Amino acid sequence: MAKRKRLTPAQPGYLAADSPAPAADPARAPIARVAGDASASAALSELSDTLRNARAEGRMIDVLALDCIDETHLVRDRMAQGGDDDMAALMASLETRGQQTPIEVVALPAPRNGKTHGLISGARRLSALRRLRARTEDPRFATVQARLIAPPDAQAAYVAMVEENEIRAGLSLYEKGRITLRAVHEGVYPTPRAALRGLFGSVSRSRRSKIGSFLELVEPLDAVLRFPAMIPEKLGLGLAKALQADHAFASGLRMKLRSDPAATAEEELAVLNAALRDWTRGQAAGGAAPVPTDDAAGRSAPSGAPGPRPRITGPDPESVARRLEESRVTARFDAAAGRITLSGGGVDAALFAAVQDWLKSRRS
């Protein structure tokens, strides 16, 4: 049987003469301190990168003052902010539940009149908040939750605006056609075809074709229509066909709408339906359609006046003139040299083609 060894208590002074005392605070050892500092620095850097990437990718929601938002940064696609009932419902929701969905903004390269951010989408929410602030003077409505995005170019900014409105509340075909032409006039796209494909590339081809047809309606009538967003699809497509085929019809319809503006959407739709109906009957009768005129002018016309003029095709002079004005084109005439010079940001291949077509129509 093995003998057991007796264990004796440790001797406190056994190592005192030969070994130094341990450090009083092991946590402050140089290696541990360096490792801790490096870990904290790495965590802070990672957090900074995460926040920076979130802001750059539009995943960060900031709180901005209402007065620093420039709602005119883009030409808006929606022509009206909705009816009084819709705006009242939105204001009631914001007052009761607060802002649930942020607007989208882009930082301006340089402040303009105190505005530091340009509005991309959310015009109705911004307008409702401003109305609430004016009505209640509540500091809750002095700011807006905004998602800061950084579109690579103007085309991407317009696409973001259009797609946001398409998802939340669809635009009318007229509004889609109008923003297409305005994007061309603003120099965002070179041609209406390019604008259609860029702004509405996510919709079906047939739907995009209908928007393209509405361009024929927007171009000559945008300045005289008061309720264009109310035009239904069937009526709009019919009018577009008539306006494209007969510019005498376009001139007469403009005269009618300008001389007797409609007070309501119903009145304006009645005028448009009557004009299209008369034009269609004239086409069925033999290719000559009556020109829409003001009622008073029609009553005062002598009984022996000539009948309706035949169809006039080719570019519409008034529409061309309006396009030149909106496209920032300057025309100069040199009588001595027999020369007309067009210059400005709107001079492009599409304009040159339109001028050539117009010249051909004058010779024919």
TrEMBL record:
Protein name: ParB N-terminal domain-containing protein
Top-level taxon of the source organism: Bacteria
Region Disordered, annotated ranges: 1-27, 283-326
Span of domain ParB-like N-terminal: 65-166
Composition bias, Low complexity: 16-27
